[in-house]
Design goal:
TIM Barrel; about 425 residues; single chain; 9-stranded mixed sheet; alpha/beta; 2 domains; binds pyridoxal-5'-phosphate
Length: about 425
Amino acid sequence: MDYFRYQNGQLYCEGVPAERIAAEVGTPAYVYSKATLLHHYRQVAEAFAPIHATICYSIKSNGNINLLKVLAAEGCGFDVTSGGELYRALQAGGEAQKIIYAGMGKTDEEIRHAIEVGIAAFNIESEAEIENIDRIAGQMGKTAVGAIRVNPDVDPKTHIKTTTGKKETKFGVDIERAERVFEQYRSLKNLRIGGIHLHIGSPVYEIQPYIDAVKKATDLIDRLTARGHKIEWLDLGGGFAVNYERPGQAHPVTEHAKALVPMLKDKPYRIALEPGRYISGNSGILLTRVLYRKMGGQKKFVIIDAGMNDLIRPTLYESYHHIWPVSPDAANVPPQRDKAFEPRNGEIVDVVGPVCESGDYLAQNRPLPVTKRGDLLAVFTAGAYGFAMSSNYNNRPRPPEILVDGDNYTIIRRRETFEDLVGPERVVK
Ligand SMILES: Cc1ncc(COP(=O)(O)O)c(C=O)c1O
């Protein structure tokens, strides 16, 4: 569900024509819908309200301060994974007591700062990290709070590079070792370990892996409780998938909740969730223009002004993003909300960017309506891990971010300039 609709033959974001934004702001550009962002946050919050779950939006999926402000105003907490993300969360008015700090390699400086500002908890990845947080909190004369990230050895059935809950990925403490770790660190002076954290991977299209992971985690908590440990919360992580390819591809979060809420309803500990993509994914599109067309052997290429530096997911994960003209010919105007519309009189093309890499594509062998130079395309479901993973590769200034609210839009991050590219460099005489 989103607020990107075709009306009068052209794509609108809420009440604003995408053509107008492109004409006034240029391309490529990320365009976000505030109503869509709010809709998805509220959907998650309501689905898990029966167990009073704390929702901590995963900033890594899209950290623009303006989006975070919208979510913070709703009472949303944040999942951060670096000092930079913590800074963003606080700048956006996020409450420190609703911030959880995950991440494989927290530096001493980052740990110190997080303790100083009073975050709710660290999600801790290893024994070495437990000892380090305890040591640093001791030096500061404070008590830190943390959850152990447990690796439940569950297959989330997603891309290998975003599978995190299987044994022998770098994440978490093996579930068989978890009890021993709790025993070993049961009476630390400066770190109170009170929670269990999971994150099995993303995007996760099936519900069963969550059920399996939650079952393993709740059993572990039962065993720990029997040994006298006080477990105060269980954090289920994020990963809920969204419809990248076609409507109905991903379960709505209400379906996940239907399976998980009964498993967690009467537990004497609190529940937290860290969804990123589910909230931000469908809230954004990437607008891009066709620069050229060419043939390569038997293949047709449509060359656009957005590249892998702007949206790397297809290159990095072979991800599919639905792409469609913003102002298609009459036969190709999709029925509302049906983004899986097949092109009429279309063609099969590779949609590629300007970057000097064969891997620089946003779609391969894709049926699309015939496009020509100057046509505007929308790359859908680009709100998560789009701008957030963008780079200046090939010295391409990163695109602007636009937030639409009803009939108005605001540039919430300007387009980068050539000066921005060289700004941090010091020319040595
Ligand atoms: C620990 C943790 N929590 C939450 C998330 C958010 O995942 P998603 O954006 O798919 O919900 C991630 C993503 O990598 C993660 O690593």
